[in-house]
Design goal:
By secondary structure, this protein is mainly alpha-helical. It is built from five helices and two strands.
Length: 146
């Protein structure tokens, strides 16, 4: 398990597996320890987060995958998406990446990461052109005059 924020999810998964007769040892590590062990392939299963920002996809599914996933077509699409400046074209590339990952699943998605953000009603432009995070596109935000 990567970091203490996922330890609760690891405990839940461990309990659910125990109920069906599967024993699982849970080890919580700091990100640097986990990163080094994942890169070395020293794990049977890894519970961690994969971001959907271009950098997260690149590190997880690109040509230099930290998860040791090797799929040339996916790596090529990830690189294209990472370098595509137009949001609509990038969205199409992400859709193609999703199709490929469903055909050749490199990981088992256990649950979605759901987040909530709040802003004052004067803040406008929150729909990110990057479709990822408003933080990545602060240049598109403004305050509306009352």
């Amino acid at each position: 398990v990567e970091g203490s924020e996922l330890a609760g999810a690891g405990l839940l998964l461990q309990d659910q597996l125990r109920r069906v007769g599967i024993a699982m040892e849970l080890e919580v590590n700091e990100r640097t320890v986990t990163r080094d062990r994942v890169r070395a392939g020293e794990f049977d299963a890894y519970l961690g987060a994969i971001g959907n920002a271009p950098g997260g996809l690149h590190r997880s599914f690109g040509a230099e995958s930290r998860l040791r996933y090797r799929n040339a077509a996916v790596a090529r699409l990830v690189e294209e998406a990472r370098n595509e400046p137009h949001p609509e074209l990038r969205d199409r590339l992400y859709a193609r990446i999703g199709e490929r990952l469903r055909e050749d699943p490199p990981v088992m998605w256990l649950f979605p990461q759901v987040g909530m953000r709040a802003a004052h009603r004067r803040v406008r432009g929150l729909r990110s052109p990057d479709r990822v995070s408003e933080i990545l596109s602060l240049r598109h935000l403004w305050l509306e005059d009352l």
